[in-house]
Amino acid sequence: MPILKETLATIIGKINETPVAKKQLKKTAQNPVEAYEFALNVLQGRWPIAEKHIINGSNSEIIYFYARRVIRGRWPEAEPVIAKNPRWAYEYARQIIHGRFPVAEPHIAKDACWAYDYAMDVIYGRFPMAEKYIAKDPDVAYRYARNVLEKRFPEAEPVIAKSPEDAYVYAKNVIGGRWPEAEPTIAKDPEVATRYALAIIKGRWPEAEPVIAQSPAWALLYATDIIRGRFPEAEEYLERSVYRHAYARNALKRPWPEAGIYEL
Question: Whole-number mean pLDDT of the chain?
Answer without folding.
Answer: 93
